[in-house]
Amino acid sequence: MKKLISLGMLLGVAIQMATTQVLAVELLMTAPPRESKAVGNRLYAPLAQHIAKITGASVRYQHPGNWFNYQRNMRKGKYDIIFDGPHFVSWRKVHLQHDVLVKLPGQLEFYLLANKDDHAINTLDDLMRKKICAMPLPDLSSLSVLDRYRNPVRQPVIVGVKGGMAKVYQAFKRGKCRAVVLRTTFYREKMTQEQRNTMKILFHSKPRPNQAISVSRKLDANAKHKIIQSLTVGDGVQASKAILERFGGEGVKSFVRVKDTEYDRHNELLEGIIFGW
Q1: According to DSSP H, which parts of 76-162 are helical?
Q2: pLDDT tens-digit profile of 134-145?
Q3: Which residues lie closer than 8 Å to 232 by C-beta, 6 or more apart?
Q4: pLDDT tens, residue by residue, 192-203
Q5: What predicted TM-score, i.e. pTM, was given to this entire model?
Q6: Helix 221-233 with 37-55: angle, nearest 10 deg
Q7: What is the spatial distance between Cα 133 and Cα 120, in angstroms, rounded to a whole number?
Q8: What's the CATH class of domain 110-206?
Q9: Where exactly does CATH 3.40.190.10 map onto the chain?
């Protein structure tokens, strides 16, 4: 009997040590370098702290610094909790076995637009080797357009504009490009009717799921469940408030659950267009 008790105690200690070891591993949370380090900390650090609180793990937000670091470190599996677009989420799901937990409501769709009085630009073929203003590659807006130009010789030149859709539109209006890629919600909700009347739609991308949070295999099923519950109906809604306001838009109250196959095959936007993926 004493031997059985001793074995049970040893097993309990071993399980506790294993759990403690997992929790002692620092988990890195990140997002694309769309904003400065200071703004990134304001947006994502509260959520990292909240995930640490509800899971018992050590979680730290790390600003990637630049797109090169972001993509390199992602491919190496350095990050454990990431919030970004469906093409990246899908790539990690396939190549790093990440699980997709929650997403922003709605879908991502884009218009490729030109000036209505630019009579030389009427189809996608007319933009071959021409400049298009868009968010810098590998943003989903730019990739959604380049996906229609699988022959590199025929591709337009993406002029990357940082700072959001408003800055992209301003660059186009200043004559930097012959066409512009804008999110459909920006076109419908942020532009005036007078501005829309001066534009013509050359291409409407197919809808894709919104930005999402995926996690690495370092998080167990219990931790994943806690994150999903908290960010959809729990205290995590408040912890993610800055993210929801920045990327969700009006009316978005929380993250929502993800359907099983929702993030399948969007990785093809990266792997079929950008070298190295």
Answers
A1: 86-95, 140-146
A2: 999 999 999 999
A3: 102, 254, 255, 256, 257
A4: 999 999 999 999
A5: 0.87
A6: 120
A7: 17
A8: alpha beta
A9: 2-105+210-271, 110-206
